[in-house]
Specification:
Elements: E1 2-5, E2 8-10, H1 17-31, E3 36-40, E4 43-44, E5 53-55, E6 58-61, H2 64-71, H3 74-83, E7 89-98, E8 107-114, H4 121-135, E9 141-149, E10 154-161, H5 164-167
Antiparallel strand pairs: 1-6, 1-7, 2-5, 3-6, 4-5, 7-9, 8-10, 9-10
């Protein structure tokens, strides 16, 4: 499995209702996209205190071929047409689970950590897998995904939460 994300920085005065409308109109097309395990339409908005507006869709894919089909297909062509061709961040998935499909997430957390240079990959994978399994018990969690960037040897824990209270006091 792999993840992709392409943060698109938008002007501070960008009308974010345009993004909401985009998601409303195009969101269902992703529900039947072959090879897609998860899609989260993530945004940061200046109106809620962010330094700037950002649209940053996050995907979890079952295989590399599914990513290639998406990046060369009409859905990503629509992104390019609207915003220009963004840089796509692609990472390996160590662990992934959808925990509770009834949760409608309002918060995504990303925790990135640099791995100790002396740490062997099996140890890193095992520790992250244990941490991943532990967080799955948290109430208010839609999905959890643990990523590794093997070029920089960083891990990123991505969690989609019902709300801020759900994420509080959880060793994300």
């Amino acid at each position: 499995m792999r993840s992709t994300q392409y943060p698109i920085e938008l002007a501070r005065n960008y009308d974010m209702t345009q993004i909401e409308e985009r998601v409303r109109l195009r969101g269902q097309a992703f529900e039947r996209l072959d090879g897609l395990a998860l899609k989260a339409f993530l945004v940061r908005s200046a109106s809620t205190g962010a330094k700037h507006n950002c649209y940053a869709p996050f995907y979890v894919w079952n295989d590399d071929l599914a990513i290639a089909r998406f990046l060369t297909g009409p859905l990503f062509a629509g992104v390019i047409e609207s915003f220009g061709r963004p840089s796509v961040i692609e990472q390996r998935v160590i662990e992934f689970a959808v925990v509770d499909r009834s949760v409608r997430p309002t918060l995504a957390t990303f925790e990135t950590a640099q791995s100790d240079t002396a740490r062997q990959p099996p140890s890193l994978w095992q520790a992250e897998s244990r941490h991943h399994r532990d967080v799955l018990q948290a109430p208010g969690l839609l999905a959890a995904c643990t990523l590794v960037d093997v070029q920089a040897w960083t891990t990123t824990r991505v969690r989609l939460w019902a709300n801020e209270a759900s994420a509080r006091d959880v060793g994300r």
